[in-house]
Amino acid sequence: MALNMDALGKTIGPIMKDYSWKDVAIYALGVGAGFDDIEYCWERKLKVIPTFSIASIFEFLGHVGINSGMNLAGILHGEQELIFHKPIPVSGSFTTEGRIAHYYDKGPGKGALIIAESDTCGEDGAKLFSSVLTVFSRFDGGFGGENAPKKEREYPDRAPDFTVEEMPSQNQPLLYRLSGDLFDVHVDKEFATMVGFERPIMHGLCTLGFACRALLNSLCPGEPEKARRLACRFSKPLYPGHPIRTSIWKTGDGTACWSTENTATGETVISQGIFEFGDVPA
Asked: CA–CA separation, 186 vs 177, rounded Å?
């Protein structure tokens, strides 16, 4: 089935979602939070990990998949950018509206990129965050479109300022999926092997949540509301139970670049990372 060109630019939404403090805490547990950063798990002190944002609008991602006509058996999260306009409340409702902005053709047998953009507002109508999502659809290339422009980011030629090592559990996807991403490749061994993996893989957004915690704890500990922008590329799949290391380089006042590595294999699983942080504009 070919990509649906008629879907380009058409509005998706508005999509409504109510959430409670329990959703915030379940998400935090799903991305490795615990007693060491209890403020993300305990309702008496609760703060929201900023990447809760993209996990909470998974229904929008589903609409992108359906409207685009992409082959769902071959999809992987390619890139993600999040821009934070205001701190995310610990409970309330989201309203998300967006569109499929671009299709890029990597060529026959090489796949396609689907770019979707969205804005999400809180229950008072104020914009909370914006998302630019890139889906890599492995089986949809060769439709004759233009290829995506190259985007490469250089890292400083020095040791990172911070490194954070963690060990997602063998069962991490089972906990993370409670935040909304129920795709079979993360839980069903038969499906995972059918589409080319040894076994179920980690959600890329789950690994991103681990990285986000590392960035917050290193650069603005206890102040997740200072996150302004987070962007990255998902470079390699990660199997649950493999150790990871997030390396962080400060590049300026309120800016950093970062990457996350599978320390069992030496492979970089998230690359091209950007983090911007600072006080919320008045």
From this structure: 8
Strand order in the sheet with 267-277: 11-19, 92-105, 112-121, 127-137, 75-84, 227-234, 267-277, 255-262, 244-252, 162-166
Residue-wise over 176-202: b if at least 16 C-beta within 10 A, else e?
bbebbbebebbeeeeebeebeeeebbb
pTM for this model (two decimals): 0.94
Q: Domains of the chain: which residue ranges?
A: 5-277
Evaluate whether 155 touches 124 at the Cβ level (below 8 Å): no
pLDDT in tens, 236-278: 999 999 999 999 999 999 999 999 999 999 999 999 999 999 9
Residue in the structure block whose two tokens are 């839980």:
187
Q: Helix crossing, 204-219 with 21-30: angle to 10°?
A: 100
Helix (H) or strand (E) holding 118: strand 112-121
How far apart CA 207 and CA 234 sit, in angstroms, is 9
119 forms beta bridges with 97, 130
- Per-residue DSSP letters for 209-257? HHHHHHHHHHHSTT-GGGEEEEEEEE-S---TT--EEEEEEEEETTEEE
CATH of domain 5-277: 3.10.129.10
For the record, the structure tokens of 173 come out as: 């996807």
